[in-house]
Amino acid sequence: MPNRYQITGTLGKGGVCEVFRAIELNRKEEVAIKRLLPLNETRLNEPQANGLRREIMALTQLKHPNVIRLLEYGEDEEGPFAVLELIEGESLYDVIQEGALTYPDFLDVARQTLSALCAADEVRLLHRDLKPGNIMLSMNEAGRLEAKILDFGGSKLLDRPSLQTVDHKGSIIGSVDYIAPEQLDLQPLDPRTDLYSLGCIFYFCLAQTPPFHGYSPAETVQNHLEHDVKPLHLLRKDIPMIISDWIMKLIERDPDDRPVGARHALTLLENISVLEQTPGARLDDLDDLAAPLSSSTVLPQPLTRVESHHAAPAEETAEAAIEESPVQATQAGENLLGATLLLDFSPDTFAPQSDGKPPG
Fold first, then answer.
1. Do 309 and 100 meet the contact criterion of CB atoms below 8 Å apart?
2. In angstroms, what CA-CA distances link 253 with 28, 195, 209, 224, 342?
3. Of 89, 186, 263, 321, which is the most exposed, with the fewest CB atoms less than 10 Å away?
4. pLDDT(297) > 90
5. Residue 287 pLDDT
6. Which CATH code fits 5-87?
7. Structural domain boundaries in the chain
8. Is the dihedral of CA 29, 338, 78, 157 positive or negative?
């Protein structure tokens, strides 16, 4: 690793990687440096260098304000390393633990993350492990809320729809609360797979629970496969029905019933503002309004803080308490770890990560 980087501390350590805080001595800029752990310090049976190399390749292809920035990469006697921008903030997972998002906050996060997926679609890149722990919220220099997608260690560049990757033990990459049914079925994957995961995240943002969460990982998998989910409008009656419809469309069981890609989903979201105040408006009413957005569209980031809105249970009224919860500048290391998450389908073990947080 270039000697112009001085390690100043450890940001976090996961099951596969460790992330260090460092200073680039020439510019006096703080950065995060991601390295693989020695094999004897992991829970794995083989090195995962390809995962870090895959993340590096993905980030060289994908440059977007809502995707973590790769500053430099290389290999030395200890293996590959990646120098990344240092993000000070909170993971979306941690923010939601404080309270479900208000509608305006949700729209801001949804627009930014979908805009990032639009850029990924343009370079035919699938993330394959989107979850709240892989999205960071922070304040930029202008004092605006900024969402960034992290951890592309499970990503894949596609020239055509591709089957879900399975290792020699029958394990697949993913997080059980946010994994798409076609990943579980070992069916071809395409951009609609990431849309499903993002739709599950959007549901979580508003309901404080993933849509298919069960009492056990196995039950959660079954709920995905059987599409056993409570409609979002029963949990958040203060949210326009048309927005609930839109989120439920993102998490349809059949990929053919979802938007064709992030651009289509974002266009629908932008056009919802035309009808959201219309009593009884539903998503089907947008069919004549949806027009593709320009690939150069830059979406606004108007908020200066994240507020917390606790969702009312279905049997309660829509009068829910609102409490403010500004995003604090906290250590973001655990959300940069990129530890490989495996859904193990071997007969004697099943141990996926079910809470959406990276292991630490």
1. yes
2. 49, 12, 18, 8, 22
3. 321
4. no
5. 60
6. 3.30.200.20
7. 5-87, 90-324
8. negative
Sequential DSSP letters for 3-55 = TTEEEEEEEEE-SSEEEEEEEETTTTEEEEEEEEPPGGGSS-SS--HHHHHHH
* Choices 3.30.450.20, 1.10.510.10, 1.20.1560.10, 3.10.290.10: CATH for 90-324: 1.10.510.10
**CB-neighbour burial class of residue 7 (10 A; exposed 0-12, middle 13-18, buried 19+):** exposed
Q: Which residues contact 63 (CB under 8 A, 6 or more apart)?
A: 69, 119
Neighbours of 336 (CB within 10 A): 29
Beta bridge partner(s), residue 280: none
Task: Give the tokens for residue 3.
Answer: 């000697």
Report the alpha-carbon distance of residue 16 to residue 52 in Å, rounded: 10
Q: Which range is least confidently modeled, 30-39, 138-147, 250-259, 265-274? A: 138-147
Residue type, 329: A
What pLDDT, on the 0 to 100 scale, is given for residue 2? 73
Torsional class of 276: left (φ above 0), alpha (ψ -120 to 50), beta (otherwise): alpha
In 152-233, where do the E strands start and end? 156-157, 162-163, 171-173, 188-189
**Integer angstrom CA distances of residue 285 from 194, 274, 276, 288, 316:** 25, 10, 11, 7, 29
Q: Which two tokens stand for residue 204?
A: 């979580």
Phi/psi of residue 116, each to 5°? Answer: -65, -40
Distance CA 156, CA 169 (A): 20
For 186-198, the pLDDT digits (tens) are: 888 899 999 999 9
Cβ atoms of 92 and 205 within 8 Å: the answer is: yes
The pLDDT mean for the chain works out to 75
Strand partners, 29: 24
Neighbours of 310 (CB within 10 A): 13
Tokens of 352: 């996926």
**C-alpha span between 52 and 39 (Å, rounded):** 14
